[in-house]
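Action item from last week, closing it out:
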Amino acid sequence: MVYQHVQPAYQSMLGHLRSKAPERFKKSLNDALSKGNGFASAAHECTDYSILQFNKGCLDASIAQANWDTSKMRDKLHRDIDAHIVAVRTAKLFELIGLYEVRSPFRKLAREATTGYHHHG
């Protein structure tokens, strides 16, 4: 039967689509953030666009009469995207914390308290 030969090629194509999608998502999210877009809206829009592109690729790769299920690959892609969103959000939070600590007027006082240095002047 043809199905036995076509199914592995189809699965391979879906795997290829899923493996390329996270990199495209990361690039589009990075581009959106570089343009000054808000994190939550950029993450949401880039996620929607990435899933839409994945679905379009699956549709292009599918064989109408086979009606194969792409939901597992789509779920894996969603998990990849969600993991990247968490990683970027965490990095941004640490970046903000670092900026806050640098700008804090108490930083000098804390350093003096821990080193025992006091400037009399």
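Closing note: Helices lie at 2-34, 39-61, 71-103, 106-115.
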